[in-house]
């Protein structure tokens, strides 16, 4: 058995090398972006930009219900010591809650609907499963942002995702203003993979989920991408959503306004792109961060 694993590892081709000792040139994506047939007008620019804005994914009543649900989870004393709950390093306030579809019936119900999984199927051209779900909380005044990164870089290096055949659906549960830490994206950057430098320590996720320092591009990388692709911002009222490619370069600034920003993330991966052993880490992250249950939704 061990010999078979070693042989498979030796034969595996890594088209997206990362966590390297020295600087490596950017890689133009060899894989498609859209594998299926786009039927929704809202997704018409997905292949070009790497994202699509969905202005009214949730109605006002659903926004209220989901808002109450995420408040309940953040305040639940039964989750206070749960590994799935990530707190801010400085303030101790809840930053993220993972595997939220197993904690919230509302999220679980939304996952399989055509306005969620159905959009992912159009882009990925196959059945899909949930790679990850989470809530991101960005409270007012001291909400900490997320530095520029490609999700796929981490999912490839630390989870073993072979190719960027995955999408994230970010659903705004509060109004996303230009000034309260809303998501910034580089349109078209999903076609360029940026290798990162540095080795991955064991259990790196415990640090990176609070503040990521390994697996992020250099300032030179960000400058080059920004000059090439420009920067756009996802803003909109609560209930709007953003569907984006796993390799899209994105990030968010700190929120020093009184207005909180909270989003639910549903990450769909193709059943034809299931996880292997990590490409650049000593072992896979826990399954509540990178699921190894590949059952289609």
From TrEMBL:
Keywords: Dioxygenase, Iron, Metal-binding, Oxidoreductase. This is Ectoine hydroxylase. It comes from Nocardia puris. Coiled coil: none annotated. NCBIfam families: ectoine_ThpD. The keyword Oxidoreductase applies. Its cofactor is Fe(2+). Belongs to the PhyH family. EctD subfamily.
